[in-house]
Amino acid sequence: MFEQLKMKKEQLDQNRPLPTYTLQSLRAKLFLEWTYNSNAIEGNTLTINETKVVLEGITVGGKTMREHLEVINHQDAISYVEEIVRREEPLTEWQIKNLHRLVLKGIDDSYAGVYRDQQVFIAGAVHTPPPPYLIQDQMGQLMRWYETETDTMHPVERGSLLHAKFVGIHPFIDGNGRTSRLLLNLELMKSGYPPIVIKVENRLSYYNALDRAHTTGMYDDFIALVATEVETSLDLYLSAIAPHPSKNSPS
């Protein structure tokens, strides 16, 4: 699974840097799709074109203020992810809280970046997140695991496990899904991979793979789902590489 991704990433790396405007258009396309799909998975009803115009500063009639803020906030959170990558900063619990604060800014400021103080349940899932008094300890365990056990992992495995373990703890009242997908892409982007998009139409497979991971400790389905989307993003970038003319082609 990872060998195919490694080959495609090497092919992409050999053709870096991509032309400036090509790179800008790829970035805009993926970031829009990432924002639209990540919000749609959580129930936001804005279409992808409506999401685009909200990012351009236009209000969409008949949609809630929350839905507008979810779009704007997600783009701000992506910018923060890019900043972490650019500065080559190691992942910290403080960064995770900052990401969540950006996701929930203006929506629920009292819980933005603050661990939950109430029990929550995940609709449709067998797994029940831990009670609030265990969250700080479990987040500490997550960070220790990340710092001591993930160095030798493939970035796709590391990012997938970080996402799955984090969302299993469900440390915040709201915004855990968006934050977990931001963390996943943060790990991928740190290692030079393009960000991926978990598509809303694949929501059922995504939720089922996560629930299986949380209830059985088997993460293979979820890692495979993420790997498929990594390959999709790599293929998109590779499609932008102009083929080199053959030496035998007529001049």
UniProtKB/TrEMBL annotation:
Question: Site annotation (Important for autoinhibition of adenylyltransferase activity): which residues?
Answer: 42
- Coiled coil ranges (UniProt) are none
From the UniProt record, give one GO term of the biological process aspect: cell division
Which sites are catalytic? 170
GO molecular-function terms, A-Z: ATP binding
Origin: domain of life: Bacteria
Q: Where is the Fido domain?
A: 91-228
* Binding annotation for ATP: 174-181, 206-207
Alphabetically ordered keywords of this record: ATP-binding, Cell cycle, Cell division, Nucleotide-binding
Q: What InterPro entries does the annotation carry?
A: Fido, Fido-like_dom_sf, Fido_containing
PANTHER family named among the record's database cross-references: FIDO DOMAIN-CONTAINING PROTEIN, FIDO DOMAIN-CONTAINING PROTEIN DDB_G0283145
This one is known as Cell division protein Fic
